[in-house]
Amino acid sequence: FWSGAGHLGIFLAHHFPDCHIILVETKWGSLRYAKERIDKLGLKNISLCLAHMEQFVGRFELGVSLHACGSLTDKVFQQCIRSSAAIVSSPCCYGKIVNSESLLYPKSERFRNIIYDHNEFFKVSRLADHESNNENYMKCVDIDRTEHLREYGYQFVGISKLKPLTCSPKNNLVVAFMD
C-alpha cells in the first residue's frame, strides 16, 4: 500500500514469482514510473491500482507498507483487518497522525484506558518525530497499534527493526498475522 514508484513491490514481485503483487498508490505519476520499470523487467505477476486506501476493495493475504506516513499506516492496518491479512509495515512520520472520521486515537482500548485525552496521545506521536531520543515515543505509538491489532484477532503481533539500523531514521517494523 502507498507503493510510490513501486520499489518494494517490484522487488517482491521479482523474488516471489508465484505471488501476485498489487501496487496501490494515489499518484498517477508514481504508478506510471512503476509501470515503466515493471515492463522493462518483464514482470507478469504485478498489477497497479490507482486509488485512495479507502477505495481499494480487493482481497489479499499480506499487506505491506514502507514509510506510510502518519495515519496512513493505520489505514493500511484497517484494510488488512478487513481482509484478515497479515501485515508487514514500517511506519514513519508519527507526528502526522491525526483523528479522522474513520480513525480515532489512541487506537486500542488498552491505551484509551490509560490516555484519556487524545491530545496527550498526539503529543507523544509528535515527540516520536522530533525528540533526539525518539525511540520510546515511536514504540509507544506502535504498541498502541499492536494492541489494536490484537483486539481484532491478530495472534502474533510484534515490533522489530529494519536492518541495518541506519537504513532509515524511522526503522520500526510492525509484523502481525492471524493464526
Sum this structure up briefly:
The protein is 40% helix and 21% strand. It is of the alpha/beta class and 179 residues long.
Give the amount of beta strand, in percent: 15-25%
- What kind of sheet is the major sheet? 4 strands, mixed
Mean pLDDT rating = 93
Q: How helical, in percent, are the residues? A: 25-40%
SSE order? HEHEEHEHHHEE
Q: What's the tally of helices?
A: 6
Global Rg: 16 Å
Describe this structure in words.
It is a single chain. The radius of gyration is 16 Å and the shape is globular. The chain is built from six helices and six strands. The two termini are 23 Å apart. It has helices at 7-15, 28-41, 72-83, 109-114, 118-130, 135-151, and strands at residues 21-25, 46-50, 62-69, 86-92, 156-161, 172-177. The strands form two sheets. Strands 3-4-6-5 form a four-stranded mixed beta sheet, with helices on one face. The protein has a two-stranded parallel sheet with strand order 1-2. Helix 5 crosses helix 6 (135-151). The chain is of the alpha/beta class.
Helix and strand arrangement:
Elements: H1 7-15, E1 21-25, H2 28-41, E2 46-50, E3 62-69, H3 72-83, E4 86-92, H4 109-114, H5 118-130, H6 135-151, E5 156-161, E6 172-177
Parallel strand pairs: 1-2, 3-4
Antiparallel strand pairs: 4-6, 5-6
Helix pairs in contact: 5-6
Key phrases:
179 residues; four-stranded mixed sheet; 40% helix
